Amino acid sequence: MRMVESFLMRTPCYAAGLKITVKGLMLHSVGCLQPKASAFISSWDSLAHGGFCVHGFIDGEDGTVYQTLPWNYRGWHCGSGGRGSGNNTHIGVEMCEPVCTKYTAGSNFVCSDLDAARAVAERTYRAAVELFAMLCGKYGLDPLADRIVISHREGCARGIASNHGDPEHLWGQLGIRVQVQLDCIGFLREDIKGYGLGMKAVYGVSGAVDGLYFCGKLRKNLIYCHMLRGIMQTVALL
User: Fold this and answer.
1) Does 22 map to a domain?
2) Of the four, 89, 150, 210, 223, which is 20 to 30 A from 137 by CA?
3) Which residues pair with 26 in a beta bridge?
4) What domain range includes position 24?
5) Residue 144 included in any domain
């Protein structure tokens, strides 16, 4: 994982300098056809920019993580709900989205190049796993515990975030779906846990599957499966 410090020091959020005790991590997706993190950083870093500010962006072109706030600063990334605000407890990170998508209404979009879009989704997912594994280690968080790693959509369902559907809306409409009872964020949690254990993966292709299946739950044979860009990969953990 490549990480670049690029604090949004001119924003009102940074200037406020409020700090939190980090209790969880929230994953977002930017909701517009912009794969470049630099585009958000350059447009947001202004005193005139108010209302929202995140701790980091994951670039869609190369997976670089741009840290835009100190991790323990209170971000303005998820709004609030009936039970309070995840801004008071959670680090918020945005994944950039493919340029080949076009939003039509709300969270719905059309895609002109499905393979390219899935490649961006895979790239940002992988970076999110590595980043969140690092942050879980830094703050002593168990990614499998309740309320630790959540999406903006889950934050809304739990009453601590505004009414958004990301990033599941992106994965779902790109044909990325799971085939067991856990949802995509459930697989994210499993993969963060596995990565955090410091295990290295050796990939081997074993057949064709439609969709994306991230399952990091470790079994006795230390095998788990990835379905990335429609390809089933059996991963042996060393």
Assistant:
1) yes
2) 223
3) 92, 150
4) 3-199
5) yes
Instruction: Give the pLDDT confidence of 175-190 residue by residue, as tens digits.
Output: 875 443 347 888 899 8
pLDDT digits (tens, 9 = 90+) for 122-172: 999 999 999 999 999 999 999 999 999 999 999 999 999 999 999 999 998
Please say whether the beta carbons of 199 and 238 come within 8 A: yes
The two tokens of residue 196 are: 């955090």
3-state secondary structure of 138: helix
Residue 101: which of 47, 180, 172, 186 has the closest Cα?
Answer: 172
Sorted by sequence, the CB contacts under 8 Å of residue 190 that are 6+ apart come out as 144, 182, 214, 215, 216, 217, 224
Residue 115 lies in a domain: yes
Helix, strand, or coil (residue 94): strand
Token pair 């924003």 is found at: 11
Backbone angles phi, psi at 190, to 5 degrees: -65, -40
CA dist 156 → 91, 133, 136, 162, 220 (Å): 15, 23, 22, 5, 36
In the chain, DSSP finds a helix count (H) and a strand count (E) of 6, 12
Do 61 and 98 contact (CB within 8 A), yes or no? no
Q: Can you tell me the distance from the alpha carbon of 176 to that of 184, in angstroms, rounded to the nearest whole number?
A: 9
CATH number, domain with residue 64 = 3.40.80.10
pLDDT of 198 = 60
pTM as predicted: 0.84
- What is the predicted pLDDT for the residue at 175? 84
Amino acid at 81: G
Residue 213 included in any domain: no
Please count the structural domains in the chain. Answer: 1
The DSSP code for 96 is: P
Q: Which residues contact 204 (CB under 8 A, 6 or more apart)?
A: 233, 234, 235, 236
